[in-house]
Amino acid sequence: MKFIKPLIGARLEKRYKRFLADVKLEHDGTELTAHCPNTGAMTGCAEPGMRVWLSDSNNPKRKYRYTWELAETSTGDRICIHTHRANTVAGEALQQGLVPAYADVKAWRAEVKYGSDNRRIDWIGEDTEGRSVYIEVKSVTLAESTGDGFFPDTTSIRATQHLHSLIEMTSAGHRAGVLYVVLHSGIERVSAAAHIDPTYADTVALARTHGVQFHALQCAISQHGIDPVGELPVM
Q1: Could you tell me the domains of the chain?
Q2: The Cα angle at residue 130 between residues 115 and 172, in degrees rounded to 5
């Protein structure tokens, strides 16, 4: 996934009201408020003083012209905080065959309604045996210095509901999985965050017994784009 044009460097002053971030542009010191496209806790991703990068909508009529895309930690790790980028990157990886478990799947489509609750699946394809393959995409940015990454970064009833929907699909004879898109360059492996959301972690264990698969995608992150690289282990 390439950004339309290189991002703009800034320094983070504060993130607040979930969707807003005050920043100071590096090139001229201008202070402005940018849109923050992340509803999570953003632990370790939104520390005042962090170097950040913004995309410019070039729309002066938009209330918040700039969107916060990336952050850099004090140790130099890059993070994509824009959670919606995960779906695009996941789609590229699936279509390029970078997740070997789904190399036999074709005709990937995004945002298709499914299941008894009529929710939308992030990606759906069809394997060589004619089975539907349902993929739920999750963005992972919560990292520890050990290289461990965790999902979710806050209690997520919605994420647990998604797992139950995937269980419903495997019980009906389809294939289903969760693809964790790792948007933090310091993460080397991914686990369910039992210390944050034990219900989600328990449901992951249940989903595995029903045949739901779990994979994690490593990404190369820069101000020019986010490129899928390959798999990381899911613990």
Answers
A1: 8-80 (2.40.50.580), 85-232 (3.40.1350.60)
A2: 35
